[in-house]
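Morning F.,

Quick status update on the modeling queue. The single chain you submitted on Monday has been processed. Sequence for confirmation:
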Amino acid sequence: MSRRGRFGKYGEVKRLERIRRSGSKSLLPKGWHTKTWLHGLMPGRAPRAKGRIRIRPARSSDEEFIKELSAKVFSAYGPYGEIISQWFKSVMPTTLVALMEGERVGFVMTGLLSSDRFAEVVCELLAIAVKPEKQRHGIGKMLLKEAEKKAARLGEKKIFLHTAVGNTAAQKLFSNSGYYCEAIKKNFYPSGQDALMMSKSLKPAPQGS
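Structure tokens below.
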């Protein structure tokens, strides 16, 4: 979500193409297919649930929810309602949706990346959002953990993300989840805010998980 990296040098369209190229089937474990990667779950595996909160793979019918929530919570940084909606409609990102008593309350979106910059296959957390009135229920933490598990099952070794320097709530979530700050990106967002680049090494998924 940067002015330079996503709107300038690469642009959103080029960035999407880069994600698609990096997420080619050759990078996926044997037996995985595009639809499985998009859904983020192994075929036939039940969605994860904890109490009143349930996490399931996103459906095409979730697009408007994701677009509206993104526009609401990311509006200070740029036109991310439209941007994240375009990511959602692309082939490779994995999107999970959180529900509380049947109501959609949040989502997380990740993308597979592999480039000369990284010595290993890594995952980027593209977006994570929870309805403001539904925060402080552990939903963001659950979404983040589930996204990490899906990435580990795909053989990814590392996950990285960007979050605004002023977004202390998000920084606390990521720090408490084992993420470390690698760099500060000046004027990262379209609206001019700086961002922290954070990362976390992923543990290999248990056999048969």
